[in-house]
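Practice problem: predict the structure.
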Amino acid sequence: MSPVAAANQLLLTACVAELGALRFTPAGLPALDLRLEHESTIDEAGKPRHVKATLKAVAFGAVAERLAKQALGSLWLFRGFLATPGTAKHPVLHIQDFQQD
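Answer:
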């Protein structure tokens, strides 16, 4: 697959399970680390499947500032992309936007 044709977008309904403290990057950009939890029932191969997922996430700029004000346990629809930082083994959701689900 060519890099131009590749897409990396994720839509996820999840609740805010953990919120880190709002911090600032060396460039002065607001940043927020958080953990999201998702639970649903999805049809897979014609059978219902109960799904649970926990995902680390990060937000920057105005999105980070908005997210820092949200309550733990609040449910949102998150839009962003996945990236694996440095030498980490698991991808992190970079939140670009969120709205009430």
